[in-house]
């Protein structure tokens, strides 16, 4: 928390792109890979949804 108690403390990200990986174990690296693969899947799903919305809007105005 901040000094004034009005902001919750932010927890550090699970992975920073470009960070030093030399101190991580094989298990930790595997966990990060799994986390990033899950995030890629989530991002791809969001792209698909946005493309559907865009296509629907474009077809309305044709």
Helix content: 55-70%
Summed up, the helix count is: 1
Question: Which segments are poorly predicted (pLDDT under 50) over 5 or more consecutive residues?
Answer: none
| H and E order | H
How is the main sheet built? none
How much β-strand is present in the residues?
under 5%
Strand count: 0
Principal-axis shape: flat
pLDDT averaged residue by residue: 88
Secondary-structure-based class equals: mainly alpha
Radius of gyration: 19 Å
Q: What is the distance, rounded to the nearest whole angstrom, between the alpha carbons of the first and last residues? A: 53 Å
Give a verbal description of the structure.
- With 62 residues, the chain is mainly α.
- The protein has one helix at 26-60.
- The longest helix is centred in the last third of the chain and has 35 residues, at 26-60.
Lay out the secondary structure.
Blueprint: H1 26-60
Pick out its properties.
about 60 residues, about 55% helix, flat, 1 helix
How would you sum up this structure in a few lines?
The protein has 62 residues and is mainly alpha-helical. It is 56% helix and 0% strand.
């Amino acid at each position: 928390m901040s000094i004034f108690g009005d902001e919750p403390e932010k927890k550090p990200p699970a992975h920073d792109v470009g960070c030093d990986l030399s101190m991580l174990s094989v298990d930790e690296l595997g966990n990060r890979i799994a986390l990033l693969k899950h995030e890629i899947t989530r991002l791809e799903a969001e792209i698909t949804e946005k493309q559907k919305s865009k296509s629907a809007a474009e077809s309305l105005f044709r």
